[in-house]
Design a protein that fits this description.
The complex is a heterotrimer of chains A (397), B (291) and C (85). Chain A is α/β, with parallel strands linked by helices and 397 residues long. Helices cover 40% and strands 18% of the residues of chain A. Chain A has a 7-stranded mixed β-sheet, with helices on both faces. A 6-stranded mixed β-sheet of chain A has the order 10-12-11-14-15-16, with helices on both faces. Chain A is globular. Chain A starts with 7 loop residues before the first strand and ends in an 8-residue tail after the last strand. The mean pLDDT of chain A is 96. Chain B is an alpha/beta fold and 291 residues long. In chain B, a hairpin with a 2-residue loop joins β7 and β8. In chain B, α1 packs across α7 and α3 runs parallel beside α5. The two termini of chain B are 32 Å apart. Chain C is of the alpha+beta class. Chain C contains 2 helices and 5 strands; from the N terminus they run ββαββαβ. In chain C, strands 2-5 form a two-stranded antiparallel ribbon. In chain C, strands 3-4 form a two-stranded antiparallel ribbon. In chain C, β3 and β4 form a beta hairpin. The longest helix of chain C is centred in the middle third of the chain and has 5 residues. The chains are: A alpha/beta (397), B alpha/beta (291), C alpha+beta (85). At the A-B interface, β3, α3, α5 and β9 of A face β1, β2, α3 and α5 of B. β9 of chain A pairs parallel with β2 of chain B, so a sheet runs across the interface.
Amino acid sequence: MSYNTANMKVVEGSYAVAHAVMCCRPDVISAYPITPQTHIVENLSQMVADGELDSEFLTVDSEFSALSVLVGVCAAGGRGYSSTTSQGLALMYEVLYNVSGLRMPLVMNVANRAMGAPLNIWNDQQDAIGARDVGWIQIYAENVQEAVDATLQAYKIAEDKEIRTPVMVCMDGFVLTHVYEPVELLDKEKAREFLPDFEPEHILDPSHPMTFGAFADPSTYTEFRYQQFEAQLKALPKIEEVARQFQESFGRYYGGLIDGYFLDDADIVIVTLGSVVGTIKDAIDSMRSEGKKVGMLKIRSYRPFPVQALRKALKDAAVIAVIEKDVAIGGEAGLVTDLKAAFYNSSIRTPIIGFAAGLGGRDITIKDIRRMVEKAEAARKGDLSEFEFLALRKEIL
Amino acid sequence: MDKSLLAPGHRACAGCAMPTTIRLVLDAAGPNTIVVSPTGCLEVTTTPFPESSWCVPWLHSLFENASAAASGVEVMLKRRGKDTNVVIIGGDGSTFDIGMGSNSGMFERGHKILYVCYDNEAYMNTGVQRSGSTPFCVHTTTTPSGSQSQGNPRPKKDMPAIALAHGIPYVATASVAYPVDLRRKVKRALEVNGPSYLQVNAPCITGWTFDAGTMIELARLAVESGLWPLLEYEKGELVGVKKIRRPRPVEEYLKLQGRYKHLFKKAECADMLSQIKDMALTNMAKYNLVD
Amino acid sequence: MAIKAGSLVDPCSTRITKTGAWRTFVPVFDHEKCIKCSLCEIYCPEGCIHQEDGLYIPDLDYCKGCSVCANECPRMAITMVLEEK
């Protein structure tokens, strides 16, 4: 991957994402404050106020309203944007289904944060992973640059006439929203070429009146859901295609659906999503220098879940360790469950062990990664614990 | 009325006031109108896939967000320089209760949207449950009359007052029994440059229990008894009151409806009946309803 | 019939459902008594009363027989009759 460092600026992650949104030219931005995404909408607000961005900026009464406003915007033919996290995403839950069911190509940044109770404002992925079945495409960013690039790509995927599915671009709250790091901001004109104006087929228009949002009884409901299912399947190659088109235009590529690090000859493969990828890469570098054959597979597209790509990439691993920042209370955790399901009917019989870590913003350290790799090595020898909380503070229980 | 903008074939009950309300509103607003509705009787009876009664563009999102969705439509129309009416038509369940947050936000942001509430005074689509709009003493399935209870113990939420408290430029109450008044108020509301709220009394045969043919008569009695004053506010000032031509006793209105029948059967309810009469008298005095 | 994604529906399409099948009583209009006040047309929840050559005619494809028109007619020019089917 080549970075054109000459064009890089050190900016706050939220600013970089806001700048990306500006380059996507949304008609309407609806904003509601919630830590840690607030800086994104604050930056957008300033861009509008300074005349840099020609968008309507609406301060709304709740996150529920924030996304609902965009339903109206999209129905009236506009491109909409909002961002949220945690409690806000949960409040929008009903609208998430509504938007995907109405096939509206909206894009939201989700600054992943823990769900309360207990109240916690720090990063984990419970919010978005908990909403994985609502019919939105979910792309997870590893660093600020990827969050920027994925936002532009997200609109292109969503608005594709074969796809027409909303997209959440997930970035770890605080970790990526509040960090200052070097980023190459998007070029407005190149972005305009990459993402033309939004031209939906049907809109609310008295000269061609249509009814949006009729109720579907048992005789047709299933087929509507099936259409959405098919669209997510079509999104699998589309996400890869758009990532490659982006690479052509902008020179950067992070993988389409998945990405690998020292994957090819790895015996122990760590599977994960989001910013912890950076820590894991550092841990792998040092473990490799010790002769350990550890690799990583990063999941970029969590929905649609890239089953075939995962089977192909992981078929030669001796053991797989999944680390994720969420739990499925009463089950295990989202990603490990999806991964095990993806392999069950294949010929892959690699042991898969799962770890919940980083919940409520707890730092995942290199030591934690090493401990996980030790447990993976033990699992390879038959000493297998299927799922556990990594770095649990037993002394305070 | 010329070609109706609401096609027949919808699934509303025979004698329902809601489609009459819609037709009157659309007749006054005209075809250059986009309608947004919340979930409810209106939505379910007029848009059973693959059919729709709406001859104007229409959007339904969810139960509690019609105001938010309509705000998004209005902002886009303004952005594109289109002079199209945006009208919300929704029931009292959404308007008074679950949609309060969304409504408050829309009023407060000052969107040029007419909000028409067809008020049948309960959650009718789900089978007649009490809403914030249900008047005092009414029997609903969640405030039933029984040996320990005499119907809804709370007074009706004053939604027009809440709308007024937001400082919106136009607020009015109307009735299907007074179609000329209703149409005039719709036209006036669409002229103001900001949010407007119109609350329309819409009797419900299924929920109120009355003979379907008396729907308009009942709506008229609600007004003539003083319980549903027809008021008009511009910029917060009361500018119009429809005088009652032939005042009727409250009992004449209540007796026609099954939802009030326990008031006349149970001795415990005598006091409540006089409270309702007092409400009517208070309205008569406050708004000078009778000359 | 192919479904349009997002449950999108064409306008005015409930016309294919003839709700006239619902009714028990049918309105009969005495045009001699009619003063053409048009209140029947205004109040009808179906919007199915229309003018034809100056006469008010219910569209029996859609009339649900609710009898609001009969109740409201100031000249009692409309009678509800049990419909023979």
